[in-house]
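Support request from a user on the community tier.

User writes: "When I paste my structure tokens into the form, the page sometimes reloads and wipes my input. The last time it worked, I copied everything first. Here is what I submitted, just in case something in the input itself triggers the reload:"
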């Protein structure tokens, strides 16, 4: 890939957008999953939250494992070859395109994020098999029309698409507004497409306290929801078994002993 790819802002422009004075969810999450793309301010709030609620580390780890199981299921058992991953986060091991193309080399993946540090690392997300393709869109969840229009340059929107919203919807404070955004995105995808969601949930006092501590840090707030509210995102869709479940209990590998975590998920098909 050439050094000056027209799809990306210059390195200086991207770096100028990075605020190292406040925690950021992508960097904070990166720290929790053992990554190195974070700053002292992210590690400080991360360590503080570990003291309040060590279980959030398990949420980060097991949510990442759910991503792998969901993508493998959709690529192998449902034949999905188009993946739209919004709120991508920082590259780690087994990103969506790596999991999908491992079992379906012809899979096409579009990543969407507006965090400048994620953009700075976007080229790491654009490796691909010769048969497949990956792309990156600098946009946020509040621009569904832009996302769908630009994603159509890489994905075949006449074929089923897996819309992935993993640990991102909590940034939308109002639940009804979050549902509207999900509905707008799904409305632009054909019948047979899938919605994949996972998110932290207000299912323990520890998680509620951790969420408050994070929001009080000056970071862009992240709101944990009830399991019923997570389930509401799938209204009108056909849930894949086992339905809305803890991320550790969604199609867990045989012989695994699922742990209890404050994070729920689901995968559902558009009729």
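"...and here is what came back when it finally went through:"
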């Amino acid at each position: 890939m050439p050094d000056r790819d027209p799809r990306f802002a210059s390195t200086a422009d991207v770096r100028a957008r990075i605020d190292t004075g406040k925690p950021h969810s992508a960097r904070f999450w990166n720290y929790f999953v053992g990554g190195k793309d974070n700053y002292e301010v992210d590690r400080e709030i991360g360590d503080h939250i570990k003291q309040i609620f060590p279980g959030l580390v398990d949420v980060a780890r097991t949510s990442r494992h759910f991503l792998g199981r969901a993508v493998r299921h959709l690529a192998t058992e449902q034949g999905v070859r188009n993946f739209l991953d919004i709120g991508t986060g920082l590259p780690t091991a087994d990103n969506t395109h790596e999991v999908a193309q491992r079992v379906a080399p012809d899979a096409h993946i579009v990543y969407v994020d507006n965090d400048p540090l994620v953009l700075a690392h976007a080229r790491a997300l654009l490796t691909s098999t010769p048969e497949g393709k990956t792309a990156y869109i600098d946009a946020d969840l509040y621009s569904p029309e832009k996302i769908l229009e630009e994603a159509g340059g890489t994905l075949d929107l006449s074929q089923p698409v897996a819309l992935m919203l993993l640990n991102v919807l909590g940034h939308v404070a109002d639940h009804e507004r979050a549902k509207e955004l999900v509905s707008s995105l799904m409305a632009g995808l054909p019948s047979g497409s899938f919605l994949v969601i996972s998110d932290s949930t207000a299912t323990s006092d520890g998680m509620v306290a951790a969420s408050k501590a994070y929001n009080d840090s000056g970071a862009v707030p992240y709101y944990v929801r009830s399991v019923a509210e997570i389930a509401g995102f799938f209204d009108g869709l056909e849930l894949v078994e086992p339905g809305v479940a803890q991320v550790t209990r969604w199609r867990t590998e045989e012989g695994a002993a699922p742990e209890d975590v404050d994070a729920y998920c689901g995968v559902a098909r558009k009729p």
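Agent notes: The reload is a front-end session timeout and is unrelated to the input. The CA atoms of residues 202 and 225 lie 5 Å apart. Confidence is low (pLDDT under 50) at residues 1-10. Escalated to web team.
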